[in-house]
Amino acid sequence: MATGAQARHTRLGTVSARTVARVRRTWSQGHVEGVFGVLAEQVRFRDPVGEIGLARDDQRTRALDLYASPRGRVRVWRGAELGLVADVRGELVRVDERAASAGPLGATGDADRRRVAGGLGLELDQRLLAGRLQLAPAVRLDVLRSAFAVPAGQGEQSDEGRDHTSVGVSPRLGMRLSLRPGLSLRASAGRYFRPPTLVELFGDRGYAVGNEGLRPERGTGLDGGLVVSTPPARTSLYAHAAGFVTWSEDLIAWTQTGPYLRPTNLDRARVAGLEAAAALRLLGGDLELRGNYTLLATRNGSAEPSMFGQPLPGRPRHELFVQVAAGHAYDLRGREFMPRLGATVEHAARTFLDPSGRFEVPARTLVGAFLELHLLARIHLALEVRNLLGARVAAWRPPVAGSPTVTVPISDFFFFPLPGTSLWTTLRVDLQPPRRPRTTERPS
């Protein structure tokens, strides 16, 4: 079982800038729009005396992500709309390792990686039975060209990057049936395709490193459940309960690998569970109660005997979140001012770091509180106290017969120790005028 120790000389800094723009044109029979995005990011990780990793580290990673997506929706016949979405993405990652290890292969750690992805999706939205039944068959095609191989002498000594093309086809069918006003049945089934993210491929955080050789994750999923939604009023309710199951191939999972965590592909896996959520608004929204609960039953289907049948790492069996908030909108000389005060409780059952179920992360329960100030529905200031009770450690018994209970730090699902009581502040300014809610909206 790993333990936590303070790293006094290690530093991690991230600077990122993101811009998203949307252009939309609407007419009586449908609409077209374009979504464009640019992300530039630099991550600098310094471990000058090897406190976290196996050796000294001074790595600067720069990433550029360009995205464009034209899409549209048009009526094709009575009760039917056809939606089309296309997207293209270009990603560039440049790694500059200034403290290259002097290993036997003489690898520098430097590397330039590129990936170009294109996708095309088609969806038909058909309404029947006077709108009570909605069917949504869809299909999506994804093509990725990855240029991850590096010249000899570059990259890490164990670099697994290679040039390859991946293709994924994802058909899906969704259904919604209105049983009565405010009560509907929803279900979907289909395939999915998920390529690894840049963090999973090339991230280096000392205690967690990327894996250039990851394969895209694929699988089949089924889900179905009930949704309850009442009209907006002094008292309103939105709730849903659903069951789901997913069979995955090459599932991407973060696992314990020596002194750090690294994402790997698990040959086969199954994730099944139940999910429930509810949002209750009272007194016209002055009092709100929200909560969600997830029950998971996971199974590793890898051929490795030590992994077969074990629970998947990083996925606790039980997760619960509850929030209560109270506030009221006041008119201050013609300007709206709304303070809100609330509290949260979150619980996560134990989970594991490795696919063999040997390294355990103990359960945790954390309490928090927050204060929000909203002015003119445009300026939003939030003060949040996390881990209000200052929980820092948990009791854990090693999975060896006769082992005594030991004290370990309360941590996240990577076993990175969580802080004690901490204060977080957020300031958001909306430049666009707030939209007036429509009478058909439901609380989320």
TrEMBL record:
Subcellular location(s) of the protein: Cell outer membrane
Q: Name one GO molecular function term.
A: siderophore uptake transmembrane transporter activity
| Gene3D superfamilies documented for this protein | TonB-dependent receptor, beta-barrel domain (2.40.170.20)
Q: Which UniProt keywords apply?
A: Cell outer membrane, Membrane, Receptor, Signal, TonB box, Transmembrane, Transmembrane beta strand, Transport
Q: What does the record say about its membrane topology?
A: Multi-pass membrane protein
**Chief subcellular location:** membrane
Question: Transmembrane region positions?
Answer: none
Any Pfam family matching the protein:
TonB_dep_Rec_b-barrel
Its GO CC terms? cell outer membrane
**PANTHER family recorded:** HEMOGLOBIN AND HEMOGLOBIN-HAPTOGLOBIN-BINDING PROTEIN 1-RELATED, TONB-DEPENDENT OUTER MEMBRANE RECEPTOR
For this entry, the protein name equals: TonB-dependent receptor
Lineage per the UniProt record: Bacteria, Pseudomonadati, Myxococcota, Polyangia, Nannocystales
